[in-house]
Amino acid sequence: MKSGERPKLVRGLRQESRRFRLLVIVVGFFLVSLTFVVISKPDAILFSLNGKLPVEQAPTSILIKQKVNSPPATSRKTSTDALPGGDPRVVDDEADVRPKGTKGEEEESRVLSEPDPTSGMTELTPNKDGGGRKSDEETLGGEGKGKEGEERGHAAEKHKVTLPTVSNYTIHDTEDTENGKQDDGTGPDLQGSKPLCDFSNFRANVCEMRGDVRVHPNATSIMFMEPAGSQRDELWKIKPYPRKGDEFCLSHITELTVKSSKVAPECTKYHDVPAVIFSLTGYTGNLFHDFTDVMVPLFTTASEFNGEVQFLITDMALWWTIKYHTVLQKLSKYPLIDFSKDDQVHCFKHVIVGLHAYMEFTIDSSKAPHNYSMVDFNRFMRGAYSLGRDTVTVLGEYPKVKPRLLIIKRHRTRMFLNLDEIIAMAKEIGFEVVIDEANVSSDISKFARLVNTVDVMMGVHGAGLTNCVFLPQNATLIQIVPWGGLEWVSRTDFGNPAELMGLHYKQYSISVDESSLTEQYPRDHEIFKNPIAFHKHGFDFIRQTFMDKQNVKLDCKRFRPILLEALDNLNP
């Protein structure tokens, strides 16, 4: 090779190398651009601009992959509240009365169809080819396969997107779970195989739904939106007032329909808190029923939410909500919704229809949410009204302060005929005596403050004794039981609840000589010989005979030991 040809050859090779590198760069850039266009999702890019688009601009080809529990196929269920064996008691006449299947997780791919403008409904239908178990990642875009589908899934995780449709399904950011954050309890799979309603309780029917729940007051319906592929097919009828079996009472309660559905009216109002739906008609207006039918069950059902709960009331009684506004505001931070006057379609992630209720005026802590008890309720009521005393004053702690006795006075029935004699006897023992009455028109807040100042409260069986909820711990409740075999009902209504609240309880049954019935019937009448025999005539007869037409003339000598025992309860 000649000496002049070598440099030319070197320069040629260098030029060839530069061209090759340039070609590689161009081809590489082309491949990267092509890969970006193919793999990335233009729909997701559009949504990432601000998180959502108007309904009319939303792409209709978005596929939602959701993990759901597929409950077993169940037959359609229909039930009513009117069952035999109810307890229609109204205690105080002085107040106005008005097959499990196998649980498994299955992921279905769903396509969100365009809403029908004529029906106002949106239907979720499963993909025809959406079978088999897929990745747990929630993805947007087309059905990527293999590595390409996996990459699409990871790209989608970076955005939490609320789809602009009436179904309002949300694609959750799975990074929350990976970072240790718990699921917020709103996924459509949370209901699992659990039925929407539980009608097994003898006193109250309750429905509870978690997921996409639509409350439509105008249609008196609550709809649980079924995940695609679900075999759930449920229809329930419920009257949300805890007097199951009392046909007279429930005849005044609006019946609601609870059902599972794949179609529903468009949401017009969204809520971030759970909902509790209940009725206020029934026997409310009687102090005892205000508490046993509403206040205690509402506390049991709603207190776990610490005020973050929305109340929807069917059969609204505005005067009642005004009377008990202090308690209602403690249980819910949100304005009440009058179910009968509301035309919105409310969307919730957690809805309870009806109230948890057990025996009269009590909480069964073994069944109640978070094992709530009557001690908790007593504490709650004292706190709601900002009452100063949590427990009674020990006798002798303040030498100049006498223990206080409150006597509940009645005006029409079951009155004390010798009240002055009773007061004198109590003062002689060492009590400071306070006389007051409790009825439907009483100022609850004012009466609660009075009750909380006493150590002993006594009265004849009746709704006024319900005020024991304001007594401090270790106080004593004394119930005077009229003649007529009413010991069992008296203990059930007030004795057991008082003891469960942490109070001392004494029950005093009057004798024939202490009853005004001796002025109406001869002493050899069957009503004195065997009063229990009259119970077969039903509660209305019992009420009219032994409650409405009977007063009490207390034998102070016979009753004195009861007050002495109450005094002893104040000793350390």
Automatic annotation (TrEMBL):
Its main location: Golgi. Pathway: Glycan metabolism. Residues 89-113, 144-160, 172-184 have a biased composition (Basic and acidic residues). GO terms for biological process: plant-type cell wall organization. Keywords: Glycoprotein, Glycosyltransferase, Membrane, Transferase, Transmembrane, Transmembrane helix. Residues 379-478 form the Glycosyltransferase 61 catalytic domain. Residues 64-194 are annotated as: Disordered. Pfam families: Glyco_transf_61. The keyword DNA damage does not apply. It is found in: Golgi apparatus membrane. GO terms for molecular function: arabinosyltransferase activity. InterPro entries: Glyco_transf_61_cat, Glycosyltransferase_61. It comes from the Eukaryota. It is a single-pass type II membrane protein. One of its GO terms (cellular component) is Golgi membrane. Residues 67-81 have a biased composition (Polar residues). The chain crosses the membrane at residues 20-39. This is Glycosyltransferase 61 catalytic domain-containing protein. It comes from Panicum hallii var. hallii.
